[in-house]
Amino acid sequence: MPKYHRICHRVVAASMAALCWLVPGTGWTRTVEITPYSIANVWPAAVRFLRVDRGFPVREKDEAAGYVLFDHTDGPKPCKGSLELIRATDHDGRDATRIVITIPDLPRRYEQMLIDKFVAKLRDDQGPPAPPPQRKPEPQPQPDAAPPQPNQPPPANPVQ
């Protein structure tokens, strides 16, 4: 193969790689929500939400790994989707669950709609989240100077 063709092939390959890297695909996004309920309470509710409330066929689930693979059947054709549950702590210090829904073949708004409906269902089923744990007051810094010694006479005034 002539040198010119090898250079052209390399330029085309590099251009395609750069294009694939710069243009994100629809399947590269994930919709995430943190809910202030423990994963032990969220797992059964997630499976029930997908299987019973939404009527989606569940293809595979693993509680220990925290994922559910399902078929999103609300559109004209079924799309594969996944729901992940990750143990987390919310900004108030409570046990929480990070919920991640991914449906690569659909726009992100479908993922967000599912998460919004699931979080609303959690609030209805579980009630308000537990109050955040009480925070311990931060210790006050100790002054660098030594405290005054008791029973010392005041310094003598100079005679004027």
Describe this structure in words.
With 160 residues, the chain is α+β, with helices and mostly antiparallel strands. It has a domain at 29-126: START domain (Alpha-D-Glucose-1,6-Bisphosphate, Chain A, domain 4, 2-Layer Sandwich). Helices cover 34% and strands 22% of the residues. The protein is built from three helices and five strands; from the N terminus they run αβαββββα. Strands 1-5-4-3-2 form a five-stranded antiparallel β-sheet, with helices on one face. The longest helix has 20 residues, at 3-22. It is elongated. The model is unreliable at 11-27 (pLDDT under 50).
Key traits:
five-stranded antiparallel beta sheet; 22% strand; single chain; Alpha-D-Glucose-1,6-Bisphosphate, Chain A, domain 4; alpha+beta; 160 residues
